[in-house]
Amino acid sequence: MKTAAPISERLDDVEAKRDSGRQKIDWALEHMPIVSNLAEEFEAEKPFLDQTIGMALHVEAKTAALVETLANGGAEVAITGCNPLSTHDDVSVALDAHPNITSYAEHGIDDEEYYEAIDAVIDHEPTITVDDGGDLVFRIHEEYPELIDNIVGGSEETTTGVHRLRAMDEDGALEYPMFNVNDTPMKHLFDNVHGTGESALANIAMTTNLSWAGKTVVVAGYGYCGKGVAKKAAGQGANVVVTEIDPRRALEAHMEGYDVMSMDEAASEGEVFVTTTGNRDVLTADHFEAMQDGVVLANAGHFDIEINIEQLEELAVSTQEVREGVQEYELVDGTRVNVLAEGRLVNLASPVSLGHPIEVMDQSFGIQAVCARELVEHGDDYDAGLHEVPDALDREVAEIKLDAEGIDLDELTDVQREYMNSWRHGT
């Protein structure tokens, strides 16, 4: 079954890459109190003995902290990337040096190599899966259904992946339990808002060396990711336009002070476009033809489907890389449309990308870690299908973070607790 080899067997200068990756991971761990706290617990208690964890994630330093935490907790871990451009090869090599970890993740691979690496992870016969985008889960269901009976469960962290899993669950096609990490409060209130908002804008700015001040920025979608991008762009002096399909989210954006309009109208208004929908064909030929000269297009959704690159290529009379990570498409009327990171996830796939801030990912990976522990300890309590993360796990991660920050909370008195839990108290 396995066709891909571990990354350490494919690259040159492995020792130098290992040292570089180790340095990045150690720096991340210094700023990840949640994962570090759980790492101590897992190393002492070894909850993942006899478990094999298959992972398809963005393989960079913060991710590596989670991976090593699970491995040091007794798991055998096999990991590959969930996006061809988001892997940091030196981090992947450093992970592969761990005795309990095999990493197949490599930057810049093509689609065939991407799925060969996923197949190689599956060849380890995982009992738990941890996914970004759902490709690992769907590959198991479609190509390796004989392995499903031995899988305790898994978790999915992205909006796109949860959309796919929800549709799969509604069709009765999801055959083992999956935790919806994306929609738990510790994920969407922080990772989606602050993580996506800060990292998408930072990577666009670093890739282009352009300012936000005074720019008209069109944000497609006003979910938690879109809210973060809009909020952070406005905070840096941009004029923000929001496009939406949901009337309540559109009204929310309007009442928070943003201009709200259809993409057909916004296409001629924007100077920078950031897609955050998780859906396909958000920007298409009609929009490209209406855009201003020099416009910048970036995708902050998981897959490279939100900007229809094929239609843009058909419209273009010429194309060239005008800056590392920036592909310029010149249309017949001379308009130049600039696409960042090939339309892939801009906060991880552009050449300068470092992903979300470390402190933000500490929270999300803390949720991933306690979900894996929950599956080992109480997996029999969950039927096949998509499940919300138990609130107690979400609160546990928040409490670890607050304790690390030295922040104290008030506690309810017995009288207050009785009042809140009783229906007998009135005026």
From TrEMBL:
Its cofactor is NAD(+). GO terms for cellular component: cytoplasm. CDD domains: SAHH. Keywords: Cytoplasm, Hydrolase, NAD, One-carbon metabolism. Gene3D superfamilies: Adenosylhomocysteinase-like, NAD(P)-binding Rossmann-like Domain. Pathway: Amino-acid biosynthesis; L-homocysteine biosynthesis; L-homocysteine from S-adenosyl-L-homocysteine: step 1/1. It is found in: Cytoplasm. InterPro entries: Adenosylhomocyst_ase-like_sf (IPR042172), Adenosylhomocysteinase-like (IPR000043), Ado_hCys_hydrolase_NAD-bd (IPR015878), NAD(P)-bd_dom_sf (IPR036291), S-Ado-L-homoCys_hydrolase_CS (IPR020082). PROSITE patterns: ADOHCYASE_2. GO terms for molecular function: adenosylhomocysteinase activity. Substrate binds at residues 132, 157, 187, 191. Residues 192-353 form the S-adenosyl-L-homocysteine hydrolase NAD binding domain. Binds 1 NAD(+) per subunit. Its main location: cytoplasm. Belongs to the adenosylhomocysteinase family. This is Adenosylhomocysteinase. It comes from Halospeciosus flavus.
